[in-house]
Amino acid sequence: MTKPKILIQLDGDNQASVFDAVVGVDAGIDHLFQYHSVQVEQIRDLVHGAMFTRGPQDLHNTALFIGGSNVAHGERLLRAAADCFFGPMRVSVMLDANGANTTAAAAVLAAARHVELAQSTALVLAGTGPVGQRAVRLLARSGCQVRVASRSVERAAETCRQVQANCADAVLTPVATADADQTRGALEGVNIVIAAGAAGVELLSDDARKACASLQVAVDLNAVPPLGLAGIGVTDKAVDHEGVICYGAIGVGGTKMKIHKAAIKKLFTANELVLDAEEIFEIGRELETAP
Ligand SMILES: NC(=O)c1ccc[n+]([C@@H]2O[C@H](COP(=O)([O-])OP(=O)(O)OC[C@H]3O[C@@H](n4cnc5c(N)ncnc54)[C@H](OP(=O)(O)O)[C@@H]3O)[C@@H](O)[C@H]2O)c1
Fold first, then answer.
1. Which of the residues 77, 200, 211, 230 has an alpha carbon 20 to 30 A from that of 125?
2. At what angle do helices 130-141 and 100-112 cross, to 10 degrees?
3. Which of 127, 119, 122, 82 is nearest to 100 (CA)?
4. pLDDT, average across residues 117-146
């Protein structure tokens, strides 16, 4: 008899994410086990409980979802979980702390619908945050040259170092965007802009966006007014504004939800999957090309 699908939600926050729980249920799992405030030292016993209860032939029906608002903590939990596995004794695991992987994947896929990433230069505004860093990483892995922007060029340079450690071929330039002049300068010659700033913070004025003749695609991930990219709509989905294809946060959100659900479903197809940024991006690519 086929075993029921059990998703084990390991969340670093005081409350396990309701959002992640709902998506799990909507993706068709049979049971959701939720653990909150999960620390690295607790992972072994939690993961052993998942690994040692079913035989290897049934382990694809058990999977882990690592969430929580702190992406660095989620990455540590993922490493600790992976360290528990051996031989066939493993279960599939997905990391989407802060929604960073699914959101960044959706943003980069939106851009990729309109331009060839390998021939593009992108500016990631607020590229230092968890979502921005993932977007930088995915763009760079796709061969795009990426300017990583921050109010602090040191923070931008630190993000470049971290992404480079993960992707040696990445072509990255740290840029400061502490004021309007610097932001205009950073935008010069780019054909993609992704705004990954904190909620309710405008990063680029309408005038500056319109003045950038090279710009082809603009993607904003901030849904809280004022939006990150002034002058575009939060629900915009491939809307043409003065010759630039624009996406607002809700316009990108539908793709993000589809990727999240598809990734959860994929977890239950094998017991050895590790779904981090690149794997989740690939799932998004498959969805884009599916008939
Ligand atoms: N659609 C979705 O499903 C979804 C899912 C997750 C997140 N999001 C959205 O994606 C965006 C990025 O998320 P996140 O968690 O990575 O964001 P975050 O950590 O809150 O902020 C990202 C970056 O914004 C910059 N920033 C913060 N306050 C600022 C200010 N007052 N002025 C200018 N820049 C400021 C900082 O960069 P510097 O300090 O380096 O300048 C920070 O690293 C957010 O708007 C979030 O709401 C959307």
1. 77
2. 40
3. 127
4. 97
pLDDT classification of 106: cutoffs 50, 70, 90 = very high
CA distance 92 to 17: 20
Model confidence, pTM: 0.97
C-alpha of residue 150 to centroid of ligand 1, in Å? 11
For residue 125, the surrounding DSSP H or E stretch is strand 121-125
- Enumerate the domain spans of the chain: 6-99+257-289, 103-252
Q: Is 221 in the pocket of ligand 1 (CB under 6 A)?
A: yes
Q: How far apart are CA 48 and CA 50, in angstroms?
A: 5
- 237 vs 56: CA distance, rounded Å: 44
The verdict on the CB of residue 231 being under 6 Å from ligand 1 is: no
Residue with tokens 């990219």: 229
Summarize pLDDT for 229-266 with one digit per residue, the tens: 999 999 999 999 999 999 999 999 999 999 999 999 99
Q: Nearest residue CA, atom 20 of ligand 1?
A: 198
- What is the topology classification, in CATH, of domain 6-99+257-289? Rossmann fold (3.40.50)
Question: DSSP 3-state assignment of 272?
Answer: coil
**Which superfamily does 103-252 belong to?**
NAD(P)-binding Rossmann-like Domain (3.40.50.720)
Tens digits of per-residue pLDDT, 6-53?
999 999 999 999 999 999 999 999 999 999 999 999 999 999 999 999
